[in-house]
Amino acid sequence: MTFYSPKLNCSVHDGISLCLKTHTEPILEGVYKIAGYQVDVIHTPGHTIGSCMFYFQEKNVLFSGDTIMREVIALPEKPTGSYKDLKKSIQKFGSLSVPDDLQIYCGHGLDTTYSEIMQMNPYIAAVTK
Q1: Average of pLDDT values for 48-74?
Q2: Is the backbone of residue 17 left (phi > 0), alpha (psi -120 to 50) or beta?
C-alpha cells in the first residue's frame, strides 16, 4: 500500500518521511450510499493507481480530483502513475453519460462544467476523438 512507503506516498518530496500504520478498506468502483447521498465512484487511474472521481448524480456534481481539470490533466509523474492508464481514464471521462451543465470541482484550478472541459481541454479532445 502506498501510504506505508514515504517514496510511494510522496511525503519524501516534502522533505518528511511519513508512514501511516492504519487499517484501510479499498473502495471499489460502483455506486454507494454515503451519509444519505448516492455517490458513483469512478476509478480513474493514471495520475496515481488510486485516482478516483466521485459523481453525485442527484446534486449534478462531480469531484474530479487531479485526473482532469478545466484545461489540463494530471501527469502520471507520481510513483504509481501510468500514461496508459491515464489515457483510458480520460476516455472513460469523455464517454460519461452526464448533463453538459454537470458542475465539476477539480483538484486544482477553477471549478467548471462538463461541457466546458469537453470544449476547453485539449488533452481530452486529443484522446476522445
Answers
A1: 93
A2: beta
Q: Given this model, what pLDDT does residue 30 score?
A: 97
Q: Helix, strand or coil for residue 52?
A: strand
Stretch 111-129: mean pLDDT, rounded?
Answer: 88
Q: Is 10 exposed, middle or buried (0-12, 13-18, 19+ CB in 10 A)?
A: middle
Domains of the chain and any CATH numbers? 26-128 (3.60.15.10)
Q: What is the DSSP letter of 27?
A: P
Q: What is the dihedral of CA 118, 119, 121, 124, to 10 degrees?
A: 40
Q: Which residue has the cell 453525485?
A: 56
Q: Shortest CA distance to 98 belongs to which of 44, 67, 45, 62?
A: 62
For the record, the C-alpha cell of 91 comes out as 476516455
pLDDT at 76: 84
Give the predicted TM-score (pTM) of the model: 0.83
DSSP-derived 3-state class of residue 2: helix
User: In sequence order, what are the beta bridge partners of 104?
Assistant: 62, 112
